[in-house]
Amino acid sequence: MNYIVLDLEWNQGSRENERDEKLPFEIIEIGAVKVNSAGEITDEFCELIKPAIYHEMHRITEQLIHIQMDDLTAGRPFPSVCRDFLQWCGEDRMFCTWGTLDLVELQRNMEYYEIPPLSEVPFAYLDIQKLFSIAYEDRRTRRNLEFATDYLGILKQEPFHRAISDAYYTAKVFTYVLARKPEVIRNVSYDVYHPPKTREQEVRVVFDTYAKYISRVFESKKEAFADKEVSSSKCYLCHKNLRKKMKWFTLNNKHYYCLACCGQHGYIKYKLRLQKANDGGAFVVKTSRFITEKEKEELIARKEHADEMKKRRKH
Length: 315
Fold this sequence. Notes:
The chain is α+β, with helices and mostly antiparallel strands. It folds into two domains: about 1-185, 2-Layer Sandwich (Nucleotidyltransferase, domain 5), CATH 3.30.420.10; about 195-315, no CATH class. It has ten helices and twelve strands. The protein has a six-stranded mixed beta sheet with strand order 3-2-1-4-5-6, sandwiched between helices. Strands 7-8-12-11-10-9 form a six-stranded antiparallel beta sheet, covered by helices on one side. β10 and β11 (about 265-275) form a beta hairpin. It is globular and about 65 Å long.
């Protein structure tokens, strides 16, 4: 299998009335590095793309990536470049990115031009930014690419914020992680640009320190919360259904939390995030992990704060 380390640059409308709602960010450069299963860089792909929507470079984009609009006019249209890129990737591949945005924008651009999707359902990829945090920090902190490059002592020969150079630096960070802490790559991420449509397509996966569940699309939030698996509190190690010590609550109507206790494994914190599907409806991403006594008390305090805020809104 090949790892496709991808980085994109994109442009947007300079004024609000120029923005295309179907494609707010137009890809203008694709850069990618191919890494084999032995952790060796074997090939690269880089091409500028002729814009079809935004013909004026956004000032922030221009300052950041140092690409002029004249540089792009000689390029090929996105559909041609994208098809060549996907052919270069091959079938036996896993995408790797720094963060979560590149795959979203790649698929949004592909959909705009009616290019067949990367997948009709969620697929696993590697977020190298997350893997760096798991390997070298606290699992939660998210650093920028240059920080990781400096931390690992990687020689910086090209400027950052161009697709191919950022893809190369990301690939170098990845090869360091792969060589020194290969177990970390078990912590895959899941792209949900196309969420599950049926129960059979739902994602259930257990990692070293937590479990994740990605539900199928429901017509409404009410229907999602009525689903037994969405609202359940189950131990992901022994699979026992647990009685909740704390029912679901929220502070912002986006993230919901609850608490249960497994007699064998301890307290479990559940976090639920409701996400809108691109073609309507909503799906749920639920994570569960075991927590310490201190974390339990902090969650109880958050619940009490949520209850107090709810009382105030009523009055």
